[in-house]
Amino acid sequence: MCRLGYLDTIDVESAFGVYCTPQNRRRGAVIRPDERANLVEDDLLVAENIRCTVGDRVLFDGLSFCAHPGDLVEIRGPNGSGKSTLLRCLVGLHEPDAGNIRRTVDSLYVGHRSGICGRMSPIENLRWFAGLTNASADDESIGAALGAVGLGHARHDVCDSLSAGQQRRVSLARLLVTPAPLWILDEPLTALDDDGRDFVGELLARHCSAGRAAVCATHQVLTTAPDAPATRAVTLGP
Known about the structure:
- The protein is an alpha/beta fold and 238 residues long.
- It contains seven helices and twelve strands.
- It has one domain (1-114, 183-238): P-loop containing nucleotide triphosphate hydrolases (Rossmann fold, 3-Layer(aba) Sandwich), CATH 3.40.50.300.
């Protein structure tokens, strides 16, 4: 099951901010909570022989990879190679033409776009998103998350008044208020300055070192932190 965040009302395929419970696409059945304990040491995500096409063009075919606890998986490739499409397949926003996808833990997807309501403040956006995902986040913890991403001073400002980089920081603050063992992030460094990119790298390092995992579409090196996790790359395109 997926709970969708603030959506583009014109094109649902550009939905962003999605919290997903475990699911095995092959069976089409959600994994029950009492089954999850037996899967903790298993792969957090498995993609097997995935095929996706756009019109007559094959984006990728026979694509297989997995995310183990502690993994940082970078999805790389030129523009148009299908990176965003692949991430949407992993969270159930797009149906691949063939193949199987298995998620064994809760996952949080943050898309390429900021996915926030511009008429609301950062703290209102995060309060709404936490409620959507049933996260037990109060205003104090939400305020702490905004402080961690450098927006403590702007927590009550209307998001439309924030810069693109600040809006991106609001969307990334979701990672701090809605715990999920698996992060699926589309270009998480978009619009960020050097400090913002360093913060994302540290955040990924802490997340993966705790036995969790992240799958990220990226054109840039995600983390150079001393305790950075071992990075594996999945390359799309020629």
